[in-house]
């Protein structure tokens, strides 16, 4: 079959782009012809529909007036602007789209980011009798931004084509499946995020070892990697709290080796390494203050991170950072699924995890061996907090794993095999064969 994978953008590091890439790889292995369709393509090849771009200025203005405030627009003007943009997108589709057996529409029919795009696509697919699968990663009714439509016309669009009820629906977790059923009365298939567990393992080498030199980390420092973006819902302060507790006890292990072979000395430090993009400056400033208060060595180094390592520029891939780390921190309080969790499994590193709702509902039952921060965080003074007894217990377990070579290796291998069993490309292959058997 000829299959289109459509979104506002592809070829970037956001979760939707990453999953689309995985779908393309698996579907092509099945023998299908697969094309990306998006407003921006990044470094990918595909069909470019510029008016679908995530940052398209006309749509951003409409979006603001449709959900925040009409300001100086009348309701009729809002409707006219939505319809005009929809017509222009429809014209672009007619000019640039090819004939597809199926088009998988990612988030355009569920997030309400671009109402005009949803109108144009719904019209185009009906007129061309194209089969459509709605792949819904996010829902507008779960975002505060979209909670107060400013006109009846906007409400009609949300009700009728967000998403269209007659198409096939795919979601990424069981909470989303329940939400879609409750709000829209439609059934859906769960396709979890996956990872290529058959790929070459990430290993420390002469090049990525230079990360230590560039960041001032010593060979005998213990490196904890926070591989996520630096945004509030990642609750990185919980990792800082845990490492602060850990730092108090590390002196008791001088002369001993951790499972990666590092020998602890008097000057060994606990390091929290953060190469992720700083997307909320105020939150980063809060974290900097929190690390000072908690006396934790934290290194922000996004300038060293690129999608692919570039030795001429002296930059590294995210996989390089995993390779030189000893432990992974993943204290997020909210995730659609959890790509970094899967990356940690593949990297063969132990994980510190806050049991966010999707982890608790969908992932935990598979038996992963993690150091848990529980599931009962409270938000106080712009920071997430959990009971100090949980922090102390987590720090104690981390030390046990670090300094017990056999236990660490058993945990790592067990988690890798479970990841391979439940969240591999082979798993995705089986699910997609059922979905595309229309």
Automatic annotation (TrEMBL):
Domain of life of the organism encoding this protein: Bacteria
Pfam families linked to this entry: Glycos_transf_1
Residues covered by the Glycosyl transferase family domain: 210-415
UniProt source species: Marinitoga aeolica
The entry's keywords: Transferase
Coiled coil: none
Protein name: Glycosyltransferase family 4 protein
UniProt cross-references to InterPro entries, sorted A to Z: Glyco_trans_1
């Amino acid at each position: 079959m000829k299959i289109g994978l459509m979104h506002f953008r592809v070829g970037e590091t956001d979760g939707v782009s990453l999953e689309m890439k995985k779908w393309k790889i698996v579907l092509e292995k099945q023998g299908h012809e697969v094309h990306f369709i998006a407003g921006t393509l990044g470094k990918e090849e595909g069909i470019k529909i510029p008016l679908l771009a995530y940052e398209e200025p006309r749509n951003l203005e409409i979006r603001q007036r449709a959900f925040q405030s009409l300001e100086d627009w009348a309701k009729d003007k809002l409707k006219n602007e939505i319809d005009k943009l929809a017509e222009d997108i429809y014209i672009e589709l007619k000019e640039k789209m090819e004939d597809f057996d199926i088009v998988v529409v990612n988030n355009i029919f569920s997030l309400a980011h671009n109402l005009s795009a949803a109108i144009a696509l719904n019209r185009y697919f009906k007129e061309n009798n194209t089969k459509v699968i709605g792949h819904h990663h996010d829902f507008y009714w779960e975002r505060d931004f979209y909670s107060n439509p400013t006109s009846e016309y906007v409400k009609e669009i949300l009700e009728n084509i967000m998403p269209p009820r007659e198409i096939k629906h795919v979601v990424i977790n069981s909470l989303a499946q329940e939400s879609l059923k409750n709000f829209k009365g439609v059934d859906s298939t769960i396709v979890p995020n996956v990872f290529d567990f058959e790929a070459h393992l990430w290993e420390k080498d002469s090049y990525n070892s230079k990360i230590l030199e560039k960041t001032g980390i010593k060979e005998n420092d213990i490196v904890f990697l926070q591989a996520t973006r630096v945004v509030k819902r990642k609750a990185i302060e919980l990792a800082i709290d845990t490492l602060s507790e850990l730092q108090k006890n590390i002196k008791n292990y001088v002369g001993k080796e951790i499972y990666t072979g590092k020998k602890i000395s008097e000057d060994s430090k606990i390091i929290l390494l953060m190469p992720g993009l700083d997307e909320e400056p105020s939150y980063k400033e809060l974290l900097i203050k929190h690390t000072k208060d908690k006396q934790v060595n934290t290194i922000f180094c996004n300038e060293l991170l690129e999608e692919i390592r570039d030795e001429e520029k002296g930059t590294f891939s995210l996989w390089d950072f995993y390779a030189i780390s000893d432990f992974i921190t993943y204290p997020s309080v909210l995730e659609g699924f959890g790509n970094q969790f899967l990356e940690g499994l593949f990297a063969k590193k132990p994980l510190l995890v806050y049991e966010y709702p999707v982890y608790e509902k969908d992932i935990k039952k598979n038996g992963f061996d993690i150091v848990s921060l529980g599931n009962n965080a409270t938000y106080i003074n712009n920071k997430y907090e959990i009971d100090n007894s949980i922090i102390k217990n987590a720090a104690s377990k981390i030390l046990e794993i670090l300094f017990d070579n056999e236990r660490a290796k058993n945990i790592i291998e067990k988690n890798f095999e479970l990841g391979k069993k439940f969240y591999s490309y082979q798993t995705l292959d089986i699910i997609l064969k059922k979905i595309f058997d229309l």
